[in-house]
Amino acid sequence: MLMLGFAGFLGLLKILLMALAAFGLFDAAFRREDAFRAADKQNKVFWLIVLGLALVVSYLFSILSFLPVIGVIASIVYIVDVRPALKQVSGGSGWGRRRGSSSDGPYGPYNGGR
């Protein structure tokens, strides 16, 4: 009974770590290449490969082995260090960024002379 609960916990942890790597991978995929250079981080292809490998390794191997731990560390480094630097350089998120209202003019929003 106890082993079944422990296996369930490890399964949930594995799903959580895969979601972490998948989030980092999709976030890096939607960022611009020049933002990586401007933030003085590795290039986009490097992070796509590292995060893709982290996702595959976390899927294929057990949580208790060595390789998924390296993948988790890489995902955490991307989310904690690289992603905020990219957001600061590019001025917001890479996807779903609000581009402005349809009533915005070249100098700000048009309010109709109010």
Fold blueprint:
Layout (H helix, E strand, L loop, with lengths): L1 H28 L3 H6 L5 H17 L5 H25 L13 E2 L2 E2 L5
Antiparallel strand pairs: 1-2
Helix pairs in contact: 1-3, 1-4, 3-4
User: What is the helix tally?
Assistant: 4
What is the structural class? Answer: mainly alpha
Describe the largest sheet: 2 strands, antiparallel
Q: Helices and strands, in N-to-C order?
A: HHHHEE
> Which of globular, elongated, flat, extended, rod-shaped describes the shape?
elongated
The counted number of beta strands is: 2
Please give the order of strands in the largest beta sheet.
1-2
As residue ranges, the low-confidence spans are none
Alpha-carbon Rg, integer: 20 Å
Beta fraction:
under 5%
Would you mind describing this structure in some detail?
The chain is mainly alpha-helical and 114 residues long. The protein is built from 4 helices and 2 strands; from the N terminus they run H-H-H-H-E-E. The protein has a two-stranded antiparallel sheet. Helix 1 packs antiparallel against helix 3 and helix 1 runs parallel beside helix 4. The chain is elongated and about 70 Å long. The N and C termini lie far apart (70 Å).
Summarize the structure.
This protein has a two-stranded antiparallel sheet. The protein contains four helices and two strands. It is 67% helix and 4% strand.
